[in-house]
Amino acid sequence: MRISPAVALVLTLACLAAPTVALAQTDAPEPHFGVAGKVSSLGVGIDVAVPLLEHANFRVAFNGFGLTHDFDNDGLNLTARLRMRSVVAQLDWYPFNGGFHVSPGLMLYNGIRVEATMTAPTNRTFSLGDETLISNPSNPLVGTATVEFNKVAPTIALGWGNLIPRATTRRWSVPFEVGLVVTRSPVATLSLRGSACRPNRTNCRDLASDPGLQNDIAQEQRDMNKDLEPLKFLPILSVGFSYRF
Q: N or C: which end of the chain has fewer CB within 10 A?
């Protein structure tokens, strides 16, 4: 069969182009890792992800935040400092090969902590346990309170966005995520010193040695821990901007 010069030219060009296309596909750079900056309920953070499987990434998140606030509670002046530090490792699984992902994980370090210092203003009554008291001016009440979480806890999250998009030339994304940290309830510790009196300034007693006031402090601490019980589930809500390298 005789092949026309035009057909021969087309076949020749196709043969020359095929290796070039194949080479271009082979040499296409694979994603190495992705980085995201984000704002979340766990603080301001940075996520770093690497490809693990075709539809899965391994991601580590570093979060931090701090805040100081003054307020009044039951007649006591408190200066509270919130410190949020955490490291979370997650597996991002993309079951539909799109942006939606399921992310089980582990909070490797939970450094969320509240520290408060407290004082009792002169001539102001305050509540302690079941008693109404007033600070003794000659030995005023001062104290501290701390709230701490379990250091390690499992996490689960659902989200949208891939820090390492594969089948696209696009390098950036806007990841969004909601989920929970499942931990034990935080533990509050209350420590007070000084002396307190009845509102008429009689029956002044030392907070460190009087059994009745010690019971009041223990009751106050139990009430604090009861109020903190719902925090065994910490919400995760985050949004950020990521770039693939």
A: N
| Residues in CB range of 18: below 8 A, 6 or more apart | none
Q: So what's the pLDDT on residue 97?
A: 87
Burial letters 116-137, b for 16+ CB under 10 A, else e: bebebeeeebbebbebebbbbe
What is the pLDDT confidence band of residue 10, given thresholds at 50, 70 and 90?
Answer: very low
State in words which class domain 31-244 has. mainly beta
Amino acid at 215: N
Tokens standing for residue 161: 């966005």
Name residue, tokens 């985050």: 238
Confidence of residue 73 (pLDDT cuts 50, 70, 90): confident
- Those residues whose C-beta lies under 8 Å from the C-beta of residue 195, and which sit 6 or more positions away, are 135, 136, 138, 139, 141, 204, 205, 206, 207
Higher pLDDT, residue 19 or 165: 165
Residue-range domain boundaries for the chain = 31-244
